[in-house]
Amino acid sequence: MQLCFATNNAHKLEEIKALLGDSFTLKTLKEIGCEEELPETTDTIEGNSRQKAEYVWEHFGIDCFADDSGLEITALNGAPGVHSAYYSGSRDFQQNIARVLTELKSHTDRSARFKTVITLVLNGEVHQFEGIAEGHLLEAQRGVQGFGYDPIFVPEGHERTFAEMSIDEKGKLSHRARAFAKLVAFLQTYSGINS
Ligand code: IMP
Known about the structure:
Maf protein; alpha/beta
């Protein structure tokens, strides 16, 4: 079965290919001839994830899934959320972290969660899968692995930040891994039923 993963991130693609096994041929956006930027203009993570997957389905007629993620901070009413990538006005991780730490200065509640929503459009039907990683934010950065807000995020039940963990360790706890596990379980059941 052929399925497009609406990403140009080679690392994400390899990860999900390894999880899915042989029953699925995963295609990148480039491989299906989609060279344009996918729209991400809604004001929610769920909405952007769905918008990207539906764009591929509507313009290329191929079953597809797309992911979208962000950091939701309790004291900031869920910000940066869907704006996580450009919170400081640029994509620069250091500047984004700096803005979050400045805004959190006057707050004692440091709780936050990473959220991923994957939208799958299969035969024109929409399915969504959510993965959450609960945790809290430090006042200063620790660690050098990972990306984005990893150096200030400590997942629940742990002492180290995501940036102090190996890729494998973060991979077992992360919001993205949890959402992908739900997608993979769904697709495996689906391919079992349809084979
Ligand atoms: P995307 O939807 O996966 O591109 O994520 C959007 C933004 O959320 C990223 O640019 C990061 O700022 C933030 N983000 C998402 N996932 C993570 C993560 O695992 N660690 C740190 N930051 C993340």
